[in-house]
Amino acid sequence: MNARLLTLVCVTGLTVDVSAKDDASLEGTVQLPPPVVERALNQRYGTNVEAPLTPSNPPAAIVYLEGNFTANTKPKSDDVAQMAQKNMLFAPDLIAVHTGGSVQFPNLDETYHNVFSYSKAKRFDLGRYRKEEKPGTVVFDKPGVVTVHCEIHDRMRGTVLVLETPYFQKTDSAGHYRLDHLPIGHFTVKAWINEADVRERAVDLKSGARLQLDFPAK
């Protein structure tokens, strides 16, 4: 009968389950801020669009592994993330891509939208386009935080987090995340909520480790 070696260690909130697999995994919960209550919609250029004012996207965080990796993993050429324009919001309003990755911005509303950014990591302007027109696609070739806006609708705001690591995941609305197939070594794990709230912890990943790592509020 095959024996399975299982070692369980609990240290300062870290739970480590060591099994007979080569790579490591990491999961936990990020304590998220409360949802934002939206104010009245401010539209420019007298568009007078009849649309319900919907709640904002639920709070979320991007959890990612940072450090020196042995392999320079590049995104696949056909990997394209999406940040749609729906109900006068960017949906989702927070996404992450690996450096060199692409994002498409489809318009799902019955009105014109525009997507632009003046961020240092990526400046672009896709102009105005309607639902039936081909959505613009942007390649994000430098790491950093890219804030996107709609020229027509002031309320709309989205964030593209461009990361040099291929190991990342967006939490669900309850703050849960899981990262699988992680490399072995000493790294920093970061939970990015916004530019003013980035939490981090050092971690040692060993062969077969299954770690529980939570991020409480600051």
H/E series:
EEEEEEEEEEEEEEEEEEE
End-to-end CA span: 48 Å
* Major sheet: arrangement of strands: 1-2-19-3-16
Structural class: mainly beta
Q: What is the makeup of the main sheet? A: 5 strands, mixed
Q: What's the total number of strands? A: 19
The tally of domains stands at 2
Q: Briefly, what CATH class of the largest domain?
A: Mainly Beta
List low-confidence stretches.
1-20, 39-54
Give the count of helical stretches. 0
Strand content: over 45%
In CATH, the topology of the largest domain is named Immunoglobulin-like
Judging from the principal axes of the Cα atoms, what is the shape? elongated
Average the pLDDT over all residues and give the rounded result. 82
Radius of gyration from the alpha-carbon trace, in angstroms:
20 Å
CATH architecture annotation name of the largest domain: Sandwich
- The level of helicity is under 10%
Q: Can you walk me through this structure?
A:
The protein is mainly β. The chain has two domains: about 1-35 and about 170-190 and about 200-218, no CATH class; about 70-165, Immunoglobulin-like. The chain is built from no helices and 19 strands. The protein has strands at about 5-10, 15-20, 25-30, 60-65, 80, 85, 90, 95-100, 100-105, 115-120, 120-130, 135-140, 145-150, 155-165, 170, 175-180, 185-195, 195-205, 210. It has a five-stranded mixed beta sheet with strand order 1-2-19-3-16, with no helix packed on it. Strands 15-4-17-18 form a four-stranded antiparallel beta sheet, with no helix packed on it. Residues about 1-20 and about 40-55 have low confidence and may be disordered.
